[in-house]
């Protein structure tokens, strides 16, 4: 009898542990730019929006949401893979409230960067303001869940940062202000300093699980290939080299911060190699075109230039690596997310 009671206690205890294992990451909290903005820019006075067709034509119900894609973005797929929910809402979207945000929320703003000067270009949400929204969100969640449960939620949630491309392609290489102040190497260090301080602030606010993304092969975006048309529309190697150098420096900083901030679980995720693999060998992934985008002519259209009146938009986005001249298709986002979940995020599951 005693033996049976011991066995029963063992199985009851085991069953009680299962939910805890599945709840390793109870929410995903997102910061960044258009790669992870599900629609915050809809509520901002900026020309950089995507809440109109054909954006979102492959999203649930065929509805444009403000995501710069024909469907879901990478963080949506990551959330689904971690068994949280199939899409992460925008913090400024009035359709959602704190109950929705309790299991995942994005503060990201398309067009923003680490550098405040980058967000000024198109009047979008600066990176520092995203942190202020996070503090506001924390207060709301404490009222919703109670202080102790909310604080535990912050420490267990995955804080994901995806940003940086705009600092170079929308700012440094376009306007003379930063390029006259900094060499490329110095500007990289300037941005990484901002990233480091942002992570330190997240740590002070209770975050313990943080993933920061590196830069993609930004010289291979269709828009950049178009500017390189006189050279055969090849990728701009200079931009790709900058991305690789930045990623190397960022990885070094991540290593230093892990030593500095006790108890933090900090990792860097790099989309560079996987996206470059798709660009160089698109047929291996079922793509037909990795040089031009699906929307419009595929050379320069983005935001309002990629609208429902453009007669050149492709009929099947799954054949394309890029949706518009700057952003991946839903299929590409799904592949990148799957890669990140199986590699970088494996230790969080």
TrEMBL record:
Signal peptide annotation: 1-23
Transmembrane segments: none
CDD domains in the cross-refs: SGNH_plant_lipase_like
InterPro entries: GDSL, GDSL_lipolytic_enzyme, SGNH_hydro_sf, SGNH_plant_lipase-like
Domain of life: Eukaryota
A molecular function GO annotation: hydrolase activity, acting on ester bonds
SUPFAM superfamilies: SGNH hydrolase (SSF52266)
A Pfam family that the UniProt record links to this protein: Lipase_GDSL
Keyword terms of this UniProt record: Signal
PANTHER family hit by this protein: GDSL ESTERASE/LIPASE EXL3, OS06G0636700 PROTEIN
Family designation: Belongs to the 'GDSL' lipolytic enzyme family.
Name of protein: GDSL esterase/lipase At4g26790
Lineage of origin: Eukaryota, Viridiplantae, Streptophyta, Embryophyta, Tracheophyta
Gene name of the record: LOC107920800
């Amino acid at each position: 009898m005693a033996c049976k009671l011991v066995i029963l206690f063992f199985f009851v205890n085991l069953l009680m542990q299962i939910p805890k294992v599945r709840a390793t990451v109870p929410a995903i909290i997102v910061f960044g730019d258009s790669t992870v903005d599900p629609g915050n820019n809809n509520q901002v006075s900026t020309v950089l929006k995507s809440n109109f067709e054909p954006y979102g034509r492959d999203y649930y119900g065929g509805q444009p949401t403000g995501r710069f894609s024909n469907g879901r973005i990478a963080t949506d797929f990551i959330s689904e893979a971690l068994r949280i929910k199939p899409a992460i809402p925008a913090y400024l979207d009035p359709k959602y409230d704190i109950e929705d945000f309790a299991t995942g929320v994005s503060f990201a703003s398309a067009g923003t960067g680490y550098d405040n000067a980058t967000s000024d270009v198109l009047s979008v949400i600066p990176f520092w303001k995203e942190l202020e929204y996070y503090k506001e969100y924390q207060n709301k969640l404490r009222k919703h869940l109670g202080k102790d449960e909310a604080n535990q939620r912050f420490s267990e949630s995955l804080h994901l940062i995806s940003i940086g491309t705009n600092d170079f392609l929308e700012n440094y290489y376009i306007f003379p202000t930063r390029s006259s102040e900094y060499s490329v190497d110095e500007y990289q260090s300037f941005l990484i300093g901002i990233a480091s301080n942002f992570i330190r602030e997240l740590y002070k606010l209770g975050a313990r699980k943080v993933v920061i993304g590196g830069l993609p092969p930004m010289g291979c975006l269709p828009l950049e290939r178009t500017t390189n048309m006189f050279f055969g529309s090849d990728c701009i190697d200079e931009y790709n080299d900058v991305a690789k150098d930045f990623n190397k420096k960022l990885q070094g900083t991540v290593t230093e911060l892990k030593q500095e901030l006790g108890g933090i679980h900090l990792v860097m995720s790099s989309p560079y190699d996987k996206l470059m693999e798709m660009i160089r060998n698109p047929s291996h992934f079922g793509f037909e075109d990795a040089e031009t985008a699906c929307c419009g002519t595929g050379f320069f259209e983005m935001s309002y230039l990629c609208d429902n009146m453009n007669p050149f938009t492709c009929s099947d986005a799954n054949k394309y690596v890029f949706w518009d001249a700057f952003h991946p298709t839903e299929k590409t986002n799904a592949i990148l997310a799957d890669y990140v979940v199986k590699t970088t995020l494996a230790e969080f599951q």
